[in-house]
C-alpha cells in the first residue's frame, strides 16, 4: 500500500467518523432522543477515534497513531458492551428506539468492532511506513475531513452543555436541563 | 457536566493534533483517555436497579 493511498483511507475514516457523529445528532435533534451518560461516553469515543487519522494526516503515517485509535476503539466497544449487558434480560425494552432492529449502543459496538478490524488491516501494510523524507502536503479531502470532525465535536460540547447543564447528567434525560433552567 | 468537559477535552486534543506538536497531542490524548476510563468506572460502580 502506498503512502498516498493510506492517507486517503485515513481521510475516508475521518469522513466515516463524521457520518457517525452526524447520525447521532440527527437522532438527537430530529427524533428527540437525548443521549444517556453511557451513550455520551460512546459518542466521545467515536470522536476520539479521529485523533489517530488526524495525526497520520498531519505528521505522517506511524503505527503509534493507529494505536491511539485502536485503544479508543477497544474502550468504546467495552462501554457499548456494558450497555448491551444492562439491557440483556428478556423483556427489557432497551434504552431509546431501535434503528434497523438494533439499539444505538448495539450499532456502536458493531462500529467499534469494525474500527478495530479496519485498523488491524491497515497495520498489515508495512510499506506505508517507509518514509521517503519528503513532506506530504495535506490535500483538500483530508483537510476538509479534519475540519468537519473538529466542528462536529465542538458542536457536541454545546449540545451536551445544553442537555446536562452544570450538574451531573441525568440517567434518563428527557429535556435539555440548561434550557429548562433558563426558561 | 463531566461529559461536556470530556467533549471539550477531545476537541482540544484534535486542535492540538492539527495545529500543535505531536508530543502535546499525544500527552493530551493520554490524559483525556484516562479521564474517559475514570468516568466510565465511576458510572459502572453505580448500583444497578434490577427488576428481578
SSE succession of chain B: HH
Number of beta-strand segments of chain A:
2
Helical content of chain B (DSSP H or I, runs of 4+): over 70%
Low-confidence stretches of chain B: none
- State the major sheet of chain A: 2 strands, antiparallel
Order of strands in the sheet with the most strands of chain A? 1-2
Q: Any low-confidence stretches of chain A, pLDDT <50, length ≥5?
A: none
Q: Beta fraction of the residues of chain A?
A: under 5%
Number of domains of chain B: 1
Mean pLDDT of chain B: 89
Question: End-to-end span of chain A in angstroms?
Answer: 56 Å
Task: Give the SSE map.
The complex is a heterodimer of chains A (about 180) and B (about 50).
Chain A: H1 3-30, H2 37-48, H3 51-59, H4 63-86, E1 98-99, E2 102-103, H5 104-123, H6 140-164, H7 177-182
Antiparallel strand pairs in A: 1-2
Helix pairs in contact in A: 1-3, 1-6, 2-4, 3-4, 4-5
Chain B: H1 2-19, H2 22-44
Helix pairs in contact in B: 1-2
What does this 3D model show about the protein?
The complex is a heterodimer of chains A (183) and B (52). By secondary structure, chain A is mainly α. Chain A has one domain (3-149). Chain A contains 7 helices and 2 strands; from the N terminus they run ααααββααα. A two-stranded antiparallel sheet of chain A has the order 1-2. In chain A, strand 1 (98-99) and strand 2 (102-103) form a beta hairpin. In chain A, helix 1 (3-30) packs antiparallel against helix 3 (51-59), helix 2 packs antiparallel against helix 4 and helix 4 (63-86) packs antiparallel against helix 5. The termini of chain A are far apart. The mean pLDDT of chain A is 89. Chain B is an all-alpha fold and 52 residues long. Chain B has one domain (2-41). Helix content of chain B is 79%, strand content 0%. Chain B contains 2 helices and no strands. In chain B, helix 1 (2-19) packs antiparallel against helix 2. Chain B is elongated. At the A-B interface, helix 2, helix 3, helix 4 and helix 6 of A face helix 1 and helix 2 of B.
Amino acid at each position: 500500500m502506498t503512502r498516498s493511498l493510506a492517507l486517503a483511507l485515513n481521510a475516508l475514516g475521518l469522513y466515516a467518523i463524521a457520518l457517525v457523529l452526524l447520525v447521532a445528532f440527527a437522532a438527537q435533534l430530529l427524533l428527540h432522543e437525548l443521549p444517556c451518560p453511557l451513550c455520551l461516553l460512546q459518542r466521545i469515543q467515536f470522536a476520539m477515534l479521529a485523533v489517530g487519522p488526524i495525526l497520520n494526516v498531519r505528521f505522517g503515517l506511524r503505527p503509534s497513531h493507529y494505536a491511539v485509535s485502536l485503544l479508543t476503539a477497544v474502550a468504546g466497544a467495552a462501554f457499548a458492551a456494558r450497555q448491551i449487558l444492562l439491557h440483556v434480560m428478556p423483556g427489557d425494552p432497551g434504552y431509546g428506539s431501535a434503528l434497523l432492529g438494533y439499539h444505538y449502543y448495539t450499532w456502536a459496538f458493531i462500529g467499534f468492532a469494525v474500527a478495530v478490524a479496519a485498523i488491524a488491516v491497515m497495520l498489515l501494510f508495512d510499506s506505508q511506513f517507509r518514509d521517503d523524507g519528503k513532506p506530504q502536503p495535506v490535500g483538500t479531502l483530508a483537510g476538509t475531513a479534519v475540519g468537519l470532525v473538529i466542528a462536529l465535536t465542538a458542536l457536541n460540547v454545546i449540545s451536551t452543555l445544553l442537555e446536562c447543564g452544570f450538574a451531573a447528567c441525568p440517567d434518563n434525560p428527557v429535556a435539555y436541563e440548561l434550557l429548562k433552567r433558563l426558561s | 457536566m463531566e461529559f461536556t468537559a470530556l467533549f471539550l477535552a477531545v476537541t482540544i486534543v484534535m486542535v492540538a493534533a492539527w495545529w500543535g506538536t505531536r508530543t502535546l497531542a499525544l500527552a493530551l490524548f493520554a490524559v483525556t483517555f484516562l479521564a474517559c476510563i475514570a468516568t466510565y468506572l465511576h458510572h459502572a460502580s453505580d448500583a444497578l436497579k434490577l427488576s428481578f
